[in-house]
């Protein structure tokens, strides 16, 4: 190859080279021990601010034929489905069929700061399309492995033309889809390969016109009565005003029959990966924390989600660590904030979470949580871009996160970026790679598989939910919705 640089890559290089100059006060990364921010008690340095945060962006180049991520000994990795259109999440139905939710975010978010223009352009590169022309996205594809040999035999688009979907759930011949502005319900019997019926709206969700964090995840409660939906904040740190944060930075509880909704937990800047721990029946999530306090703040995290709990955003992080950028300050809310369970290091962009209990994976991975880390762009070196595993004991994290699926990043280029994770109908791990347009399958090297499929919404014991020991959320906390939200209904428009 000649030494000629494309205008796109040259501009990218010039921009990245300029970032350290603009972010000279952004804090040192080279001497910071990343492992000190993994676990229940992370090291939190003093915050720093700069005109622009440090940035290092990996241009997406995709995967060459035969090229795969890497996994440790005892595991094997193969492509489960390729040529997708930004796959974000995977969901296994009780019959073993796998739904792949593919989506791109809605456009049109207003730019209210000069740095937003630069960041918007940077993110368009970081979220590339696998190195080629982009296919139409915002659809759900069904993958069927008829003989349970780990290879897809049938593939069909179940739903198309959706509004930036992300989470799904299934119960009682009904498929629930969390689009960016509503939870939709469709009549759906297992085995169908296409849905032609029009949806009804179970409940609206906060959407545009800003819609900063657009992904809305779903999890079905163990008793099948409640859907839990994640709603990210409408800003990094309230730069759009507190009024724009109503109903956001929260996890909602939605009655599956009536659509009646309430805020279940709040102060969660951008929660995703909603899932229940099969050992305890407790709801868990991964959360992307705030930016622009330096390269080593604030750690993204995994946490159990307690009913009525407040986790700090925007006024504080990790309990009582105050964010001075937010006005007005709310010491009463800081006092109420509880720290999360487990830090994952700063800016890894954790988006996917699934528990391995009951899978066919070997002993080192048979009782814990897999986490999809989409990867950083806002620090001087890359962090994340991998799937990690955190062992659990007695329903709680019990050890350091271990790298499981790596090789997404190479030098300054990204082959792909992991998002959602799940267990397929044979007990193998699936990883949705939205930039590489692939779903990867990670299985035991000895070919082990489960006796029968277990759906994502199955296999969770119905046990009492632990509740935070805190007072009800006061009305003055304007970044979340009132205790009861409007009921859904309508035609799905």
Automatic annotation (TrEMBL):
The Pyrroloquinoline quinone-dependent pyranose dehydrogenase beta-propeller domain covers 168-293, 336-442
Signal peptide bounds: 1-23
Which InterPro entries has this protein been placed in? Answer: 6-blade_b-propeller_TolB-like, Beta-prop_PDH, Quinoprot_gluc/sorb_DH_b-prop
Q: Per the record, where are the segments of Low complexity compositional bias?
A: 467-483
Sorted UniProt keywords: Signal
Name the segments for region: Disordered. 446-493
Q: What is this protein called?
A: Glucose/arabinose dehydrogenase
SUPFAM superfamilies annotated for this entry? Soluble quinoprotein glucose dehydrogenase (SSF50952)
Could you tell me which Pfam families the record lists for this protein?
A: TrAA12
